[in-house]
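dude i think i finally got it to work??
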Amino acid sequence: MRPNIVSEAGLQTRASQWWDGIPFLTSAVIIVCGAIYLICLLFGYDSFHEICFLPGAIVSHFQVYRIYTSILFHGSLLHVFFNMLALVPLGSELERIMGSIRLLYMIILLATSNAIFHLTIALVVAHNPFQPTQYLMNECAIGFSGILFSMIVIETSLSGVQSRSVFGLFNVPAKWYAFMLLVIFQLLMTNVSLLGHLCGILSGFAYTYGLFNFLIPGPSFYSAIESSSLLAGCVRRPKFILCSGGNPSAYVPTYSGHNSPSSGLFSGNIWRNFSSWMPQRETAAQSTQDDSRFPGRGRTLGSGQNTAVNSDLNLQARLLDNSSPNNPSDISVAAAGERLSNERSQVNNAVAAGAGGYPLPQMQQGSIASEEQIQKLVSMGFERTQVEVAIAAADGDLTVAVEILMSQEG
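look at this
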């Protein structure tokens, strides 16, 4: 029974660490949506027709509350589970970039814009002169998935990736990723709201274009809310992320953001925004600048190692080409290369001894391998420095050198 107790404790610890890593607002949305579903389940409430997004009721009775109640209610356990599961990575990433209050404002803004797009399309379809139909006006939609599709578009635009994997099956261009998910979900689940998801995508693109810039307040607005005594308990929470603690723009449209594009509705350059109906990323220009979303001098994983390997190879090449240095700088480089060779020889001896082999002898000046032999082994995937040591240890025999290299890798 002891191993089971240990494994259960480890699973509980991992679950606790996973939950602690979710920022404040994202975890709050998960708790609220989950609690609402459980309360409806316990009390047997299923009158979703009263709280869902119903264009006909909003237009005829001006029930604007449906815009916001519809995103908090879900129809089934799988519905709320998969929506919240998708919210964890999307909401966490955006909240770390924007801050908790800014993300809350963005969710409210996206819910409102989704409703406006939804109502507009439903009214156009219902009153078009060719074939009017009231189907969309009477469609009852609930769930957080419309906001999720907007987040997918915004997060994809922020990431700057060129392609994305669809469930690990195939890759699609990043600008088509949300539309591909829309088609797949519609084919797999026929009871989902196609128009609700489509309006979420449209809102996401409008947000990334900067069409909502005039609706987004400046940093002082969020700072005033964070300093309010009503939110003091929330702000002190360790998972709460202050808007002032991160990048105030981060390619997120704000009226004072220098990195965000200006709204075409007010700059007069409407054609530039609507000529391409997908947001474009200037990856070449941004790659030369520091991303203010992530302060510090960041680098790609493994870049330091590659730099060190390249510098070592350049040093070895200089040592081989300039066997007799004639200036102080070459002498210092040669001395550094000699120390490096001595250290690597000790490492190679230790590796060979640990693998059951024998210590590798030092490379003698009279047994320097030919460039052709070195290139043959380098083309097989071995490092040049190890190849030189192995050929020297094998007295120029390539077969023995390969065995030495293989034993070192083993």
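Confidence is low (pLDDT under 50) at residues 245-313, 315-341, 350-367.
im so relieved honestly
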